[in-house]
Amino acid sequence: MLAIEQGAQVIERLIGAWETPFVELAIFESGNAYHIASLLVSYCEEHLGVSVAEFLFYESSQGAVVGLRLVDERRVVLKVHQPGQSFEFLRAVQEVQRYLVTNGYPCPCPIAGPERLAQGIVVVEELIDDGVYVDAHDPAIRRLMAETLAQQVQLTRGLVHLPGMRTSMWRFPEIDGLWPQPHSKLFDFVATSHGAEWIDRVAREARSILDVCSGELALGHTDWAVKHFRFKRGQVRVIYDWDSLARDYEPILVGDGARGFTMTWHLPTRLTPTREEIHAFVEEYQVARGRAFTRTERTLISASVTMGLAYSARIEHSLAPEETDWPEESCRGILACYGAGYFEA
């Protein structure tokens, strides 16, 4: 009971100020923090064979993520996905994670799941939280992130066609044949379409390139942002968020990583990379890869960068559709200035 009460306090600190806890209602059918904590404790007792000693943290975005210290002193993370997630996909992700861990790659090792929890699907992995969050505008950090992505892509070459593995979000345009469903109900692209037509035009130009591409498929972590990294003694200690894995063409995965690698909420820093930083990331990836991208591949990288910026610009617009004075480093500011040319082949 003490763990449940303490857990309820941790959960309430996050969701208590929200008008509507969309994720919790979808997963747990409740926004009551005590009820959610009870479900999490019960899961550990029934499926891990041990109770919870302490709730370490609770986060909520696309799903719910909770860090726990168990009574046997193990420290674990429970990631509870929304009902629409696929069991087969999560099993594939765990297979990739285990393979990467076996090969010395810095990602958490899966422990249990996927299993049903309330209306959601839960997976359990080891909690690794030593190391620090850093600023990826540091050239040394940027280089490490580019090299680590190249290593991940190379290591998983033999797992590209793993059953259950999904293709990237750009392959599922559900809104106007252009956009995937936004990753959160906070972003309503349909209701805020007015005023965003110029963003859509830039995105359609990029999509016209992405939709006809061909070549060798690869697996890549599609939220390659420094917010998911911890560093220790100048090296990558751990990378989180492996349910962002997807299958697509390597240049598209690289463009997505180059566009988003600086994103973090952990430090007060610019969220987007400069043009020079995007080019440097791609060049450093090429060196780690061992061969240069062709002109056609660089065109795909450029389209991927543009599509990612446009999607983020649409998110910005959905949150503030009346805003017209955009910061230069915002995604709307970048698109307004450069259009589809932020990274040119």
From TrEMBL:
Residues 71-244 form the Aminoglycoside phosphotransferase domain. InterPro entries: Aminoglycoside_PTrfase, Kinase-like_dom_sf. It holds the Pfam family APH. It comes from the Bacteria. This is Aminoglycoside phosphotransferase domain-containing protein. It comes from Ktedonospora formicarum.
